[in-house]
Specification:
about 350 residues; TIM Barrel; ten-stranded parallel β-sheet; two-stranded parallel sheet; about 10% strand; binds 5'-deoxyadenosine; binds FE2/S2 (inorganic) cluster
Length: about 350
């Protein structure tokens, strides 16, 4: 089947997606042009911001790919104080970012639940209820998720990392703390509570095939997600998966594959929010802008207080770790205009997909 025949279909099969992921040259460009057009028609050219706060690199998990995994003997583990997080949120509010995303290593304790809860309440107070809040704080029990939702968090990101159980189990330790079914269940609970739910995967993992990636996109479609954040896998020396470095795709191939994943997802789910993730920028200085051009509509400028940036190294060569939030702010407009888009300042930029579901229910 020709690429044009596939692109004109209303539903993609797994085989269609694999064929699209293999595209090169002019056909690859046609795919990216098509997804850019679908985006333009469905959600326009606005890019919404989520001021990203990396609250803590203390983590109870031991994911085999991650630089801040529990077993890593990092001496600069940190947790921002409540007031440090609130100051960053104030910065986002004052600069009309519209929303913040609070990301943290996974900790499950009453103290952690309360701390996040205080931050949610505090940020609503300091912004007259105006700042939107996305959480990315891992797997928690239902009552915690509910409590944070009741306090005003309305979006939650929990990446499935890989939707194929066998691959998931190869990149995580085999223990009850890294249970595939528990993660799927957490996504269902978040949706039931009423969050806009986001998930995502890493692209270019050891042992990963195009069939796995096609299944990931079908998983997102079948789970009817509202948001997605996916990015290239970037190996980290101090992690167990590093030993498989030799079998990885070159970084530029992982980058291209990620753009194709974003493009195909945009075609499959025209009205969801898709983030242009930081890992893209690690490989290509204007990687996030390239993603925006072909399908992404969310940018997450890092507003973590500068002195902690270096410590949140999920992978190596993370960009912008030595800058202050102000530095990043000054380049946001320039970067977004570069690809003929506009920043939706002062707006939550909620997932249209979620909005439509609410209207129909
Ligand atoms: N490369 C790319 N992404 C990574 N993450 C963790 N480690 C890496 C890595 N080595 C991503 C995971 C996690 C998110 C917070 O960061 O997908 O969900
Ligand atoms: Fe699981 Fe960092 S330890 S993603």
């Amino acid at each position: 089947m020709s690429i044009h025949d596939i692109l004109n279909k209303t539903e993609f099969s797994k085989e269609d997606i694999v064929q699209l992921l293999k595209l090169e040259g002019e056909d690859e460009k046609s795919l990216l042009r098509h997804s850019a057009k679908i985006k333009e028609e469905n959600i326009g050219n606005k890019v919404y911001l989520r001021g990203l706060i990396e609250m803590s690199n203390v983590c109870a998990k031991d994911c085999l790919y991650c630089g801040i995994r529990k077993s890593n003997p990092i001496d600069n583990r940190y947790s921002l104080e409540e007031n440090e997080v609130l100051n960053a949120i104030k910065f986002a509010y004052d600069n009309r970012y519209g929303s913040v995303a609070i990301q943290s290593g996974e900790i499950s304790s009453t103290a952690f639940t309360e701390k996040i809860n205080n931050i949610i309440q505090g940020s609503k107070e300091l912004s007259n209820g105006e700042i939107g809040i996305t959480l990315s704080c891992g797997e928690q029990n239902e009552s915690t998720y509910q409590k944070w939702f009741d306090s005003g968090a309305h979006r939650y990101l929990l990446r499935i990392e890989s939707s194929t159980k066998e691959l998931y189990n190869k990149i995580h330790p085999a223990d009850e703390n890294h249970d595939f079914e528990a993660r799927i269940e957490a996504l269902k609970v978040l949706k039931k509570i009423g969050y806009q739910v986001g998930t995502g995967v890493m692209i270019g993992l050891p042992f990963q095939t195009l069939e796995h990636l096609a299944d990931d996109l079908l998983f997102m479609k079948n789970s009817d997600i509202d948001m997605c954040g996916m990015g290239p896998y970037i190996e980290h020396k101090e992690t167990p998966l590093y030993e498989f470095k030799g079998g990885l795709l070159p970084l530029n191939e992982r980058f291209r594959l990620t753009l194709k994943m974003i493009a195909i997802l945009r075609i499959m789910m025209p009205d969801i929010n898709i983030a242009a993730t930081t890992a893209l920028q690690t490989i290509d200085k204007i990687g996030r802008e390239k993603a925006i051009q072909i399908g992404a509509n969310i940018l997450m400028p890092n507003i973590t207080p500068g002195k902690y940036r270096d410590s949140y190294a999920l992978y190596e060569n993370k960009p912008c770790t030595d800058e202050n939030a102000d530095d990043c702010k000054s380049c946001i407009d320039v970067r977004v205009h570069l690809v003929n888009h506009e920043v939706g300042y002062g707006n939550w930029g909620d997932s249209k997909h979620y909005g439509k579901k609410q209207q129909n229910s």
